[in-house]
Amino acid sequence: MGGVFTNTGTLQGIGSAANMIGGFYSAYSQLQQGQMQQDMNNFQADQILQQGDEQAKAVKKQGQQTLASQQAAMAANGMALDSATAEDISYDTLEKSSLDELLIKYNANVNAFQARQAGKNARTASKINAANTLMGTATQVADSWNQWAKTSKGKTSSTKGVNDYDDETTAYITRKSKYQAPGIYRD
Questions:
Q1: What is the pLDDT of residues 75-106, one digit of tens each?
Q2: Which of 24-28, 101-105, 162-166 has maximum average pLDDT?
Q3: Which of 23, 90, 139, 148 has the most neighbouring CB atoms within 10 Å?
Q4: What whole-number distance in Å separates Cα of residue 45 and Cα of residue 115?
């Protein structure tokens, strides 16, 4: 009979250990997934910034080309490039080009920040999910332990042997067995 009790307790212990190991692996997987998401978002942010710089350089170059074309057209029409009108046109062209360049850089910075923040949020969420998984696993293991402890260390009341009762019950059984046939108990 002792072997049955031991095997049941052992099986329950193995099940709890497997549950605990599964919970740890699940939590670890969630942490790794969060880190991977953050890395991907950081890479995306770097790409956004690089693309923004390239676009800003292209806008600046285009602005310089527009300015050169305007100055060539003004000179071809006999306008002095140091006149107030020519300077106003040149200033306006450079100002618009600079504003476009700054706007592109600003938008790239905002989008990169949002991508990095999304990565941080994913990482934080993975930490919270991993903690919840570990808490749930701990709760399940504790529940299994409590169930096991409630049944006299794995032995249910229907499977008790003579040696598994407390002292008071054992004394009662011993006292009754002296006066009656074994297995027949009356109150």
A1: 999 988 889 988 999 999 999 999 999 999 99
A2: 101-105
A3: 23
A4: 6
